[in-house]
Design goal:
With about 725 residues, the chain is of the alpha+beta class. It contains 24 helices and 19 strands. A hairpin with a 6-residue loop joins β6 and β7. α15 runs antiparallel to α22. About 50% of the residues are buried.
C-alpha cells in the first residue's frame, strides 16, 4: 500500500523532495520553459496554418459583395437597397498623381516602406476593445483594404490575426502599385460611389485622371467618414480635412509650400438622388436608413457592410395604404399632402406607411417628419385625462354655442361650436362622438388643462411639440404633432395602457449573424382601466351620429377621433382596432413653405377629418385587415357602471334641456346668430395666454381649432 503511494507521487513529481513546505509544490523552471515553448510552437503552427488557408480575393469581389438590401417583413421579398454600387475600375496610370499622393499622405505616410501591417495599430485596436472603447482599424492602406472589403470590422483576436495575415500576404505577393490601384478602385467615397473614378464624377464631374490638387485633397480627406464629411453635408469639417491633407502633403514632400498656398477648397456638385429611392417606397427606405443611423449604424456601414435588413412593412398592407391614398378624388390639389402610419400597438412594428408620392421629388415624410395642427384629435387626451381622473364616461356637460372665460390679464377667451349651435346635458360619450368644442372646454376646466397637456406627453407627444401648452384651449388642438407622435399615443390606449415605440426595422443580419433587433418592449403609461374606459368613449366617433360614422368597419369594433383645425389647415383621423393603430393626416403647404388652407375639392363643402382622412383610413383598414382575426375590445361595462355620473346644474329656464337618456341625441336649443356663421369661424380667439407657436419644420403658425357635426358631417361625406 505504501509502495503504491510512493510510486504515484513520483509519477506526478509533487511534492518535490528536499524542498521547503511551500516550494516543493511550485513547478520547476523546466516546467515553465516547456510550457512556454509548447505554446510558441502551437502559435507558430496556427499562424502557419492560417497563412496557408487564407486566400487573397480578387479585387473586384470586395465592393460587389457588400450591397445592403432591405426586405419586407416576410424576409424574402426585396424592398430595395441603399446603394446602386456606382463603381468603375481604372488603371493606376489613369488616376491623378496628386490624388495618389494625397491619399498616401493622409492615410499611410509609410506606405512604400511598411510590410502592410501596423502592429501598433492592431494592439491599439485590441486594447480599445478590451476597454470597451470604439474600435480603431488598422492604419495602413493595405489593412484598410482588407478590413473594409474582406474581413469586415473585427474586434476578436482571431479576426485581427486573420486581417494582419491577409495584409502581410497581399503586401508580399503584390506590388505597392497594385495594392494602391486596388485600394483606390474599391474604397467607398460616399454618395453610393466605390472607387476613385465614380467618386471623381459624383463630386466634381471629371474623371479620376483629371482631378486637381484641391479636388484630390478634398476626396482624400473624407475617406474615414465619407458620408458624414461630404462637403455638401458638412462643409466646415470637409474644409478642415482638406487643410490637413494639404499640410501633410507638404510635410511628406509631395508638394511645395507654394503649391499648398495656391490650393483652395473647391466647389462640389450637389448629391444626385439614388433612383432606388424613387416612388412611395423611397420613403420606406429612407425611414429604415434613418432609424438605423439613430441606433448606432453609420452611413458607411449601411453602404458597404452587406447587411440584410428585414423591415416590419407588410407588402399587402403597404399596397393597401398606397391604394387608399390613390383613391382620393383626382382633383386634389398638388400642394395637398397625406400621411398614413399603421402600427401594431402590441410591439410597435409599422405595418404600412405612406410618406408621400415620390421621394425623389420631395424628401419630406408626411408621416414621420411633417407636422400639422391636431385639431379635435387632441380631444383624445382630454378624454384619457378625464378617465384617469375618475370621471364617468356618461358624465354630462353643457356645450353652448359660445363659451366665454374671463381673462384678468387681457381680453376674455371666447370659444364656439363650429356649427354655432348649443347642446345641453350631453354625456361625455356623445360629446366625443359629436366633437363639441365648448363642452370640451368645460371638461378641460374641470380636469385642468395642464393635465391634458401632461397626458399628451405621457402618451407619446414630445414635450417640444410646437403649440403644446397648458392653456385652457389646448384641448381643441392648437399643438402641431407628427402622425408618428399621434400613432405612438394611440398605441398606449389600444395596448391596454402600455405604450410601444413605432419602428420600421425588425432585424439586421450580417451573414448569418443577427446584429440588430428593433425595440418591441412596452412601457406602462396609464392604467388598464383608463385605457379601457377611454376606448369605450372613443368608440362613439365611429358609431351612428359620430363624426366618422361612415368610416366604421364591417363586423369590427374600432375607436378613434377626427380632427379639423381652423381654416381648415389640416384634417386628421386617428383610430384603432385591438391589433392595429392607423393615423391619417392631410394638410396643405403654400409656395413659401407655410401652412395653407385646405380648399374644398372632390365635391365637399369643407375638407374635414370626418371626410377624406376618414375615407383613406376606412379604405386602407378594410383591405389591410382582410387576413386578420376579428377581435373585440375588452368589455368596459363593469368599469362604466362603477362610475356613476354626477348631477349637474339644470340649464337656464329660458332654454330647453334634453332628456336624461344617455343614448339620445343632444338637442339643439339655440340657432346660429346671424353674425356668427356656422363654419369658417375660429373656435378660439387668440389671447396672451394662448400665443400661437411657429412650426420649425414647415414654417407654419398653428392656431386653435376643432370640429363638430357642422364641421365634420355636414360638410360632405366621411
Amino acid at each position: 500500500m505504501a509502495g503504491k503511494k510512493k510510486t504515484k507521487a513520483k509519477g506526478r513529481g509533487y511534492p518535490r523532495a528536499g524542498l521547503g513546505p511551500v516550494r516543493r509544490w511550485i513547478p520547476s523552471w523546466r516546467f515553465f520553459l516547456g510550457t512556454f515553448l509548447t505554446l510558441v510552437a502551437v502559435g507558430i503552427g496556427g499562424l502557419v496554418g492560417l497563412w496557408a488557408t487564407t486566400d487573397i480575393p480578387e479585387a473586384d469581389d470586395f465592393a460587389l459583395a457588400q450591397a445592403t438590401k432591405v426586405y419586407y417583413s416576410d424576409g424574402t421579398t426585396e424592398l430595395g437597397s441603399f446603394s446602386e454600387l456606382n463603381r468603375s475600375s481604372v488603371a493606376l496610370a489613369d488616376i491623378s498623381v496628386d490624388l495618389q499622393h494625397a491619399v498616401i499622405a493622409s492615410e499611410d505616410s509609410s506606405f512604400y516602406e511598411n510590410s502592410g501591417v501596423d502592429l501598433r495599430g492592431i494592439a491599439r485596436a485590441l486594447w480599445n476593445n478590451v476597454q470597451g472603447k470604439p474600435t480603431q482599424g488598422g492604419s495602413t492602406l493595405t489593412q484598410q483594404y482588407v478590413e473594409r472589403y474582406y474581413t469586415g470590422t473585427t474586434t476578436s483576436l482571431f479576426g485581427k490575426l486573420k486581417e494582419a495575415i491577409l495584409a502581410l500576404k497581399i503586401d508580399s505577393e503584390q506590388s505597392k502599385e497594385t495594392i494602391l490601384e486596388n485600394y483606390l478602385n474599391t474604397i467607398y467615397f460616399g454618395r453610393g460611389t466605390y472607387g476613385i473614378e465614380a467618386a471623381a464624377k459624383a463630386y466634381f464631374g471629371v474623371s479620376a485622371k483629371e482631378l486637381t490638387l484641391s479636388q484630390s485633397a478634398t476626396l482624400a480627406g473624407i475617406i474615414p467618414a465619407p458620408s458624414a464629411w461630404d462637403p455638401a453635408v458638412s462643409p466646415e469639417r470637409a474644409e478642415q480635412r482638406f487643410e490637413r491633407v494639404i499640410s501633410r502633403m507638404v510635410d511628406e514632400g509631395w508638394i511645395s509650400q507654394a503649391q499648398a498656398d495656391a490650393a483652395s477648397f473647391p466647389q462640389v456638385l450637389p448629391p444626385s438622388q439614388d433612383n432606388a429611392f424613387a416612388g412611395t417606397d423611397g420613403y420606406l427606405l429612407a425611414a429604415v436608413h434613418s432609424e438605423l443611423l439613430d441606433n448606432g449604424f453609420t452611413e458607411e456601414d449601411l453602404a458597404t457592410r452587406g447587411y440584410r435588413i428585414v423591415s416590419t412593412i407588410d407588402p399587402a398592407k403597404q399596397k393597401a395604404a398606397v391604394d387608399a391614398v390613390a383613391n382620393l378624388p383626382k382633383d386634389k390639389p398638388e400642394n395637398y399632402y397625406v400621411g398614413l402610419l399603421s402600427v401594431d400597438p402590441r410591439n410597435g412594428e409599422i405595418y404600412a406607411m405612406y410618406g408621400g408620392k415620390d421621394y425623389l421629388e420631395r424628401q419630406r415624410n408626411s408621416a414621420l417628419q411633417d407636422r400639422a395642427q391636431a385639431g379635435s384629435t387632441f380631444k383624445t387626451f382630454g378624454v384619457v385625462a378625464a378617465m384617469d381622473a375618475g370621471i364617468s364616461p356618461h358624465e354630462r356637460y353643457d356645450s353652448p354655442a359660445t363659451y366665454r372665460i374671463a381673462n384678468p390679464g387681457g381680453e376674455d377667451l371666447v370659444f364656439t361650436n363650429v356649427d354655432g349651435r348649443s347642446y345641453y346635458n350631453v354625456p361625455l360619450t356623445q360629446l366625443t362622438g359629436k366633437s363639441l368644442n365648448t363642452g370640451f372646454i368645460a371638461l378641460n376646466e374641470e380636469i385642468g388643462p395642464a393635465k391634458t397637456r401632461d397626458m399628451a406627453v405621457r402618451l407619446g407627444l414630445p414635450q417640444d411639440t410646437p403649440g403644446l401648452d397648458a392653456g385652457v384651449g389646448n384641448v381643441l388642438g392648437s399643438a402641431s404633432p407628427r402622425a408618428v407622435d399621434m400613432a405612438t399615443a394611440f398605441t398606449a390606449i389600444a395596448n391596454h395602457g402600455e405604450k410601444t415605440t413605432p419602428h420600421i426595422v425588425r432585424e439586421v443580419y450580417q451573414g448569418e449573424n443577427r446584429v440588430y433587433t428593433g425595440k418591441t418592449t412596452s412601457e406602462r403609461v396609464i392604467s388598464e382601466e383608463t385605457a379601457r374606459l377611454s376606448t369605450y368613449v372613443l368608440k362613439n366617433t365611429l358609431e351612428p351620429g359620430g363624426t366618422a360614422e361612415d368610416a366604421a368597419l364591417p363586423d369590427r369594433e374600432a375607436a378613434g377621433k377626427t380632427g379639423t383645425s381652423t381654416g381648415p389647415k389640416s384634417a386628421w383621423f386617428a383610430a384603432f382596432i385591438p391589433q392595429m393603430v392607423t393615423v391619417v393626416n392631410m394638410y396643405a403647404v403654400g409656395e413659401d413653405g407655410s401652412e395653407a388652407v385646405l380648399e374644398p375639392f372632390g365635391g365637399v363643402y369643407q375638407v374635414a377629418g370626418g371626410n377624406f382622412p376618414a375615407q383613406v383610413w376606412h379604405d386602407y383598414m378594410v383591405s389591410a385587415t382582410a387576413d386578420m382575426a376579428v377581435e373585440s375590445f375588452p368589455s368596459a361595462e363593469q368599469l362604466v357602471n362603477k362610475r356613476a355620473p354626477r348631477n349637474i346644474p339644470a340649464p337656464e329656464p329660458t332654454q330647453e334641456p334634453t332628456e336624461e337618456t344617455p343614448s339620445e341625441e343632444p338637442s339643439v336649443t339655440e340657432e346660429p346668430k346671424k353674425d356668427e356663421p356656422a363654419t369658417d369661424k375660429p373656435e378660439v380667439e387668440p389671447s396672451p395666454s394662448q400665443e400661437p407657436t411657429s412650426d420649425p419644420s414647415m414654417g407654419t403658425t398653428p392656431a386653435p381649432g376643432g370640429d363638430s357635426p357642422g364641421g365634420e358631417r355636414a360638410n360632405g361625406g366621411r
